Fold this sequence. Notes:
40% helix, 20% strand, globular, binds 6-O-phosphono-alpha-D-glucopyranose, A-D-PHexomutase_a/b/a-I/II/III
Amino acid sequence: xxxxxxxxxxxxxxxxxxxxxxxxxxxxxxxxxxxxxxxxxxxxxxxxxxxxxxxxxxxxxxxxxxxxxxxxxxxxxxxxxxxxxxxxxxxxxxxxxxxxxxxxxxxxxxxxxxxxxxxxxxxxxxxxxxxxxxxxxxxxxxxxxxxxxxxxxxxxxxxxxxxxxxxxxxxxxxxxxxxxxxxxxxxxxxxxxxxxxxxxxxxxxxxxxxxxxxxxxxxxxxxxxxxxxxxxxxxxxxxxxxxxxxxxxxxxxxxxxxxxxxxxxxxxxxxxxxxxxxxxxxxxxxxxxxxxxxxxxxxxxxxxxxxxxxxxxxxxxxxxxxxxxxxxxxxxxxxxxxxxxxxxxxxxxxxxxxxxxxxxxxxxxxxxxxxxxxxxxxxxxxxxxxxxxxxxxxxxxxxxxxxxxxxxxxxxxxxxxxxxxxxxxxxxxxxxxxxxxxxxxxxxxxxxxxxxxxxxxxxxxxxxxxxxxxxxxxxxxxxxxxxxxxxxxxx
Length: 491
Ligand SMILES: O=P(O)(O)OC[C@H]1O[C@H](O)[C@H](O)[C@@H](O)[C@@H]1O
């Protein structure tokens, strides 16, 4: 079964992530493009470094080629933001990226991008799912997929990749320079050059290495890279930057006295940062810093957008600048839509993705990292000092994040309790309001909040709580744990 979640379709390789399902999804997009009259404009297809990613990109291309839809095949593993940039810049109606982003190594998946290089929104992905359903019915009827057979016209036809290249319907391209030049043109490269920074990069065995190395070396930084080899098992760790997964980078930054350690997730749309003291900076802190920097040091004016599970420190800082902070459900499609609507300066999520006005309509770990380096150069301050400045001005705030596994039965029970019956644990803090925009979020009168929501990318329940006092955050999480009886389920 093909079901889209928060960030595309993700499935375990060999279970649902199969050649047949990739072909079905591609054919669904073919049918959608034909119905919308945009088929002749073509599609861009890229892939990351995961197991089967390149092969899957080829399988997908073969379906478009058979239907006479031009394919721009992005040669060489590439960052997700590069594909989004390409779709936007070349005004393509659709793009596809073979990736399961930060998921474990046994997963792969497909992200679909629409006009403007945006993540396909819920309406679009529901439509794709409907088209898939139609194809499945045809497949059942035809009882054969691909290559044709005597049983009749197959539901999904293919043109072999080499033939597609020969006819020109598939064109292999490499838009890396175009993407990099766009970033280089958007940041203050001279300021970075003048500072001679030492930077450690951890691409987490993913796709950011060439891009980051090229940009930063162009700005004459001393760039050192760890975990750059191709390892489809991601060194046995999750390719998601976190305090736990970035231990080697922390040590590296401290040992080599680097100004910053930069990590990106498997497909380089998220960023993780180690500061000059070796401290892991939470994505919340990065977002706050960049918003603060763009307004205070660069004189930009405008709002900020965050999701329901991201720090309210952004609200405080925005208020301090006389600006607004907008809240949306989890999922970058909501962030970019709201940014467009409000012309916000920056939008991001506590999961580590952000973008900035004027850049692409999706998160970009490479651009975000470059901007952080620019921030160090322009302010002339160390990351730890900028964090201190912000804390002195706006105070400290603590976020407790917990993930829980569940059986299907437990999931149904939690869903019923929290989202149908709308029951809550007894809490000793005064409640301001409750929202069901995404999961269940309780806002307290003291400015703190707690949210319990099912992840849209992993089979997990996430409980996040933010409070001025860390002890309050832990206590609130524990009260939800006890109430839902999930103490033993922590991931
Ligand atoms: O908490 P989840 O639903 O798993 O989502 C966590 C993150 O997953 C993906 O990376 C999405 O692209 C993000 O928009 C989202 O914030």
